[in-house]
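User: Hi! I'm working on a homework problem where we have to compare a predicted structure to a textbook description. Could you give me the structure for the chain below?
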Amino acid sequence: MTALAHGVGSRTDLPIPIGFALYGAGAAILISFAVLLLFWRTPHLGGVASGRPLPRGLQRVVDGAVFRRGLQAVALAGAVLVTVVAVAGPRDTAANLAPWVLYVTFWVGLVPASLLLGPVWRIANPLRLLHRVLRVVLPAPPGALRLPALGLWPAAVSLLAFLWLELVHPSRSEPATVAVFLVGYAVVHLALAAWFGEEWFARGEGFEVYSALVARLSPWGRRDDGRLVLRSPMSNALATPEMPGLPAVVVVLLGSTAFDGMSRTVFWQTGPGAANDIPSGTLGLAVMVALVAGLYLLGTRLSGRLADQPESIQPRRYAATVIPIVLGYTVAHYFSLLVLDGQTTWILASNPFRSPGVDLFGTYGNVVELTAVGPDAIALVQVGAIIAGHVLGVTLAHERALLSARRARASDQLPLVIVMVLFTIGGLGLLFGF
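Assistant: Happy to help. Predicted C-alpha cells:
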C-alpha cells in the first residue's frame, strides 16, 4: 500500500544529479549564514508583543464555546465513523477508509491545515469534548500541579508512539490495528487528562502539540495578553515558549523522518531491515532519533560554550529555530503522499462500507489521478522544501543569537550551522536513496 509506505519517489525523480543537489544545498546554508553575518547585525523580528490585532468580534467567535464545541463535536463524529469503519468495514486495507484517514488525510493534512489556520487541533480536538463530559463525574485532577514540570516531554513520547506504529509496526495498515490504536490512544489520554486536568492536552497529546508547533510558522499568533494577532511567521516561531521537552519533540520529528528515508534505501532493505520485523525497525528508529539528538545537542551546547552562555539552556533556547527544518522535511517526505494517495480518502468516503448503490459524494467510481503532479515537480518541491527550511532555520538561529547576546560572532554560531548543513545533506541523501 503506497500510502502506508510513505513512498515519495526515489533519487531517479531528481532532474539534476544528486551530487549537485547535495553540494548546492550545503552551499546555500553557508552562503545564507555569511549574508546574515554581514547584513543582519541587529534583531529584526518582533517578539511576543508584536503583531496586528484582529477584530475583537472575530476573536470572540474563535475563542467562544459554541464554535469550539461545535468543531470538537464534528471531529468526534468523524473519529467515531473512522473507528466503526475500521472495525466493521472492508477487511481489504486498500478498500478500508480508516488507514487512509489516519495516516494520510489526518496526519499529513494536519500540516497544511495548521500552517493556514493556526493550531487547529487545539481547537477541534474531540478528546477535549469527551473530557469535559467526563469531568462532570470526575473528581478534581490530583496531578494538576505537577504538570508544568513535565513540559512537553509527554508529547514527545506520544508522538514517538504514533510514529513507531506508522513506520515500524508490520501490521500498521490493517484496519483492526488502526481501530485498536484509535481507541487505545483516546483511553490513555483521557485517563491522563483525568489525572492532570484539561491542560494535559496542550502538553501531552502528541497531535495537538504537533499542530501547535507547525502553527508557529502560520501568520496567526497571540500576544502575552491573549489577543489574537496577525504577524510574521518568523516572529511567531521566535515567540515559541522555551518549555522543557520542546527539543525532544523536534528531535523525535526529525529523527523519525530520517528513519523513514533510511528505511527505503537499499542499505536498509537488504541489510538491517531485511526481516521487516519489530526489533530491527524499533532499533533503527531509536538509532536515528538518537543520532539527530546527539548532533543537535552537540551543536547547541558548543555554540553556547563559544558564546559564554550556559550550555544547559541552549537546546531549549534554539529548539524553535528547528521548526522550519521539521516543516521542510515533512513537506519533502509527504507532499506527493497527500496530493496523490490523499485522493483515495475522498474516493472511499463516498461509500465507506461498500454498500450497493451508495455514492455519497459522487466519487466512489473515481480512480487516483497519478498525473496530478509529475515526478520532476515532486523532486523539486522536495529539494526546495528542505533547503528553504534550513535557510529559515539558520535565519531564526542568527536572530536568536542576537537576542541572547546582542552580537553575531561567526565562531559562536558555526557549530549549530554545521549541524544544520549535515541535516540538509543527510536529509536529501536519505530522501533520494543516496
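For your comparison, note the following. The first helix runs from residue 2 to 5. Confidence is low (pLDDT under 50) at residues 1-14. Good luck with the assignment!
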